[in-house]
Design a protein that fits this description.
Blueprint (H helix, E strand, L loop, with lengths): L2 H30 L4 H21 L8 H23 L2 H36 L4 H54 L1
């Protein structure tokens, strides 16, 4: 077996894997959307195939393949970036992502509710107060604090009025005592 046929076999194997992966993606996308997946993957695959073909036609595979491999990977990443940028900029992608997020969030609500109920039951079985119970107690403490402050304000107001009444009474008693002394003289 020659070096050229070994590299051709490697290329054919890689091409087969890419095609099978594309078909798998096509089946998955075909189940959820009517868009043609080959339109999405074709530019990427064409560039990848062209890069491989260029790499393999530059001569036989040598032990110093690393620079060629790096060049291929750079082209591969560039192709991915262009294709994904183009795909993510479409309205169809935005709608698909929005639908996915809505489904994900709708699944999270029941899961969260079950987890909270489970946690409440566990804490109750252990005799430990839950967050909702601590929040309720904190609310009651704040309400009590507000009531005490209102009572203090009312008590201060009553004390000031009582002081005024006592002062008025004291002033009246002194006035009466002075009048009584003046009459006695």
């Amino acid at each position: 077996m020659t070096e050229r046929s070994a590299s051709q076999e490697f290329f054919d194997l890689w091409k087969k894997q890419v095609e099978e992966g594309t078909q798998t993606w096509a089946r998955m996308v075909g189940q959820t959307q009517t868009a043609d997946p080959t339109q999405f993957w074709r530019p990427f695959m064409d560039q990848g195939m062209a890069a491989w073909a260029t790499l393999l036609t530059q001569g036989p595979v040598t032990p110093n393949l690393l620079p060629q491999w790096k060049q291929f990977l750079d082209q591969w990443i560039g192709a991915w970036a262009r294709v994904l940028e183009q795909a993510m900029g479409t309205e169809a992608f935005a709608q698909a992502l929005g639908g996915y997020l809505e489904r994900w969030l709708s699944l999270q609500v029941p899961i969260k509710k079950v987890a909270e109920e489970s946690t409440e039951a566990t804490l109750s079985a252990l005799g430990i107060p839950s967050r909702s119970q601590l929040t309720g107690i904190a609310r009651q403490i704040v309400d009590l604090d507000d009531r005490v402050e209102r009572l203090e304000e009312r008590l201060n107001t009553l004390m000031m009025r009582l002081d005024e009444v006592l002062k008025t009474k004291s002033d009246a008693t002194r006035r009466d005592a002075r009048r009584a002394r003046r009459r006695a003289q």
